[in-house]
């Protein structure tokens, strides 16, 4: 029987992954290495504060040491780069995450490039991005990695399928396209200059929406029986957290769909911990 409107439970899957990581962390601690993550937050953005709190809470649950470094909105680029350099040298820190977006006076590209690539658990450093592009071992960016895990755990085959990705950012759209292609899907990338968006999205067996526009994907954008992954984090007119997909309209048409909240977001955080534990494992194997 063909499944209908099945919800992919990212929240539940993320909890399972955290449990697996807790065991790995305990083993590492017995070997004398406690995985450590530094989260750097510049400024007062309230959404960023919420996400950062989620990351610290997940670290505590898994037994990963965490350090929250909160810097004022008017921090200079130089001061931030100096702080990153300290974290690069700090042996108790295996992962460094600088929360984006950054205030206008700071170049995100220079900041990302300053992180030791071996501690770049976001997978944003050009070296990690290049490793992914060329098929070398890399820290996979957390959101794309989380999406692939969700598809696999839901038993969704990718080989030969047509995946359509809407959005081409360095942190979501581009890397998720590469990962889907690596799994032998045929990938189409759409963006703000795409003409007749729905003519592409309607062909998708797997549709990934990563734009940041409330309800931009409606019933007219999907093929019956498709799998829909909603990355967007938006506010509805009533102020509720909502994705890019009109969930109520789209769900009855598709085979699987991720909810917001409770879908891609929790998996992103689980994969951040996964990369941090991996980084600590690498250090443990060297000592
Ligand atoms: N759940 C999670 O864990 C995460 C959620 N997010 C959320 O995902 C969303 C996307 O994030 P991110 O990739 O960083 O965003 P960006 O703003 O960097 O990229 C948005 C992309 O959407 C494209 N786009 C904009 N308007 C349209 C349109 N009308 N039609 C088609 N494409 C369009 C842009 O095209 P162009 O390149 O031409 O400008 C761009 O490629 C946001 O809501 C963000 O909050 C992000 C990271 C993690
Ligand atoms: N260096 C960096 N790395 C990131 O990975 C990064 C970033 N900067 N900047 C912002 C985006 C966004 N992002 C989210 C992660 C988790 C949820 C998440 O857990 N969402 C919950 C709801 C949270 C809530 O209640 O507000 C959910 O969807 O269920 C959302 C968004 C990571 N990002």
From TrEMBL:
Q: List the GO molecular function terms.
A: methenyltetrahydrofolate cyclohydrolase activity; methylenetetrahydrofolate dehydrogenase (NADP+) activity
Keyword annotations of the record: Amino-acid biosynthesis, Histidine biosynthesis, Hydrolase, Methionine biosynthesis, Multifunctional enzyme, NADP, One-carbon metabolism, Oxidoreductase, Purine biosynthesis
Matching entries from InterPro entries are given as: Aminoacid_DH-like_N_sf (IPR046346), NAD(P)-bd_dom_sf (IPR036291), THF_DH/CycHdrlase (IPR000672), THF_DH/CycHdrlase_cat_dom (IPR020630), THF_DH/CycHdrlase_CS (IPR020867), THF_DH/CycHdrlase_NAD-bd_dom (IPR020631)
The EC designation for this entry is 1.5.1.5, 3.5.4.9
| Organism for this UniProt entry | Desmospora activa DSM 45169
Record protein name field:
Bifunctional protein FolD
Residues bound to NADP(+) are 167-169
Q: How does it assemble?
A: Homodimer.
Q: Could you confirm whether the keyword Glycoprotein appears in this record?
A: no
Entry keyword NADP = yes
Q: Which residues form the Tetrahydrofolate dehydrogenase/cyclohydrolase NAD(P)-binding domain?
A: 141-282
Name the reaction it catalyses.
(6R)-5,10-methylene-5,6,7,8-tetrahydrofolate + NADP(+) = (6R)-5,10-methenyltetrahydrofolate + NADPH; (6R)-5,10-methenyltetrahydrofolate + H2O = (6R)-10-formyltetrahydrofolate + H(+)
Q: Name one GO biological process term.
A: tetrahydrofolate interconversion
Question: Matching PROSITE patterns, A to Z?
Answer: THF_DHG_CYH_2
Record pathway: One-carbon metabolism; tetrahydrofolate interconversion
**CDD domains hit by this protein:** NAD_bind_m-THF_DH_Cyclohyd
Q: Which family does it belong to?
A: Belongs to the tetrahydrofolate dehydrogenase/cyclohydrolase family.
Query: What are the record's GO terms for cellular component?
Result: cytosol
Tell me which Pfam families the record gives.
Answer: THF_DHG_CYH (PF00763), THF_DHG_CYH_C (PF02882)
Domain Tetrahydrofolate dehydrogenase/cyclohydrolase catalytic intervals: 8-122
Q: What does this protein do?
A: Catalyzes the oxidation of 5,10-methylenetetrahydrofolate to 5,10-methenyltetrahydrofolate and then the hydrolysis of 5,10-methenyltetrahydrofolate to 10-formyltetrahydrofolate.
